[in-house]
Amino acid sequence: MVIPRPGKKYINLFYYQSMTRIWRRLLPFNLVLWIVWWFAPSLPSFQPPKDEIVLYAAIASTTIMVLIFLMSNKAYVRANREYMYIGVPFYRVKIPYSYVKSLRITDLRHALNGVKLEKGDIKFILRYEADTPVSALILKEMPKPEGILHLFLPRYMFLAANRGFFFLLEDLMGFKSEFDSRLKSSRTIEELIS
Asked: What CA–CA distance (Å, rounded) separates 105 from 134?
């Protein structure tokens, strides 16, 4: 029996860059906490209990920063034989090919048309050109309840005009060709079965 190879993991650059933005903002804060803790014994306003509080805050903040740094490249998209994965740290969405209408390459302007974003997300997205190519995955129905998906996935990954997701990947054309071949073989198998 031949075990089918899983598809290649394509890193989701939106997620990677948003996590990188967070840990880079935490870095100066952590440095300040460690400097305050280091010089706390020489400061007259710091007594031993306050010194320990600063140490615990520095340890906790540094731990969170390191976890975010390690998780930044763990978001991916993968086309397997029977389904497609959207993976983010602590959660993976398995999308059967029967739920998929199409995958097409579009520009960022069309993918974001109608998406409600917060101020920080808008500043993040504005770094990209409006004609930046992204992969738009259009679905017949969502694989999980939308509330759960919105809990784990960033809001700028959802298409507003259609039901689905969009991704900024390193190799858009490579992912599209792999996805199309997997989708075609899956639909051929479904036709043979029915």
From this structure: 6
pTM over 0.85, yes/no: no
Asked whether residue 151 is domain-assigned, the answer is yes
Band of the pLDDT at 46, cuts 50, 70, 90?
low
Residues whose CB is less than 8 angstroms from the CB of residue 30 and which lie 6 or more positions away in sequence, other chains included: 58, 61, 62, 65
For the stretch 91-138, pLDDT in tens is 889 999 889 988 888 888 777 777 777 777 777 777 777 778 888 888
Residue 43 within any structural domain of the chain: no
- Condensed to tens digits (0 to 9), the pLDDT of residues 135-148 reads 888 899 888 888 88
Task: For residue 140, give its domain range.
Answer: 97-193
Is 19 within the bounds of a domain? Answer: no
Q: What's the domain count of the chain?
A: 1
Q: pLDDT value at position 3?
A: 54
Does any domain span residue 157? yes
